[in-house]
Every structure is written in C-alpha cells, then in structure tokens.
Amino acid sequence: MKEEVLNYFRNLLVLQRRRLHSSAFRTVSEMKKEEGQLSDPLDRAVVELDRQMELSIRGRERSDLQDIYQALIRIERGSFGVCDLCGMPISEQRLMARPTTLLCVECQQRQESISVRMNRWAFRDGQRTSSESFGD
User: Which ranges carry the Zinc finger DksA/TraR C4-type domain (predicted)?
Assistant: First the structure.
C-alpha cells in the first residue's frame, strides 16, 4: 500500500480515536455533575436509565478503540490492509467503509456464512434436545 494511503488511514484512525476519547471524557464529566443532584425517585430512575444506556454505548466504543489501536499497530508493522485469513490485500473501498477490518470481503462473507450455518445447526440441535426432553 502506498505511503500516502497509509497516512490517510493513520490520520483517519487517529481522528476516530480522539473523538472516542473526547466522548468518553464528556460522559464521565456529565456523570460527575449529575451525582446527588436529584431528590425525586422518578427523576433519579430516569437519570440512572440514561446513565446505563450511555455506559452501554461507551462499552461498544471501548471495543472500537481497541480495534483502532490494533489497526494503528498494523500500519506501523506494515500489515495494514492485508487479510488475516487469506493474506490478500483488502480493497481500499472496504477499508474506507471500515478501516479496522481484518478480513477481505470474500473471507468476511465466508466467515459470516459459516457463522449462520453454525447458528442454524445449534438452534436445530437445541430444538431437538428440547423436544426429546419432553418425551416427543
């Protein structure tokens, strides 16, 4: 991959990382401000529900941050944009859509197909096991 393309993705990932860090910092700051301000139980319940949703979002973002760090490491090691399974280059179009991806389109589709088949098999196996336990 050309150095200018790698620099583009490095800058994109760094920008995404900054946004996620900023969002996390803002969440913590807002939660600290809200502590102990509400006396009405219903208001506290609504704030707590909002807080739980916010923390859930931050949990997903934490996973995204880990993916971003790993992508930046792959850029530094020279393995960015190479499929982890087949070793072929990942298209720039795919990297534009998801710069943290580890798989080319073909390998991703193969992985998803296997996952769907495994879920179907597990569901059918679970169905069979359940009906057998009821004497059907």
Answer: 78-112
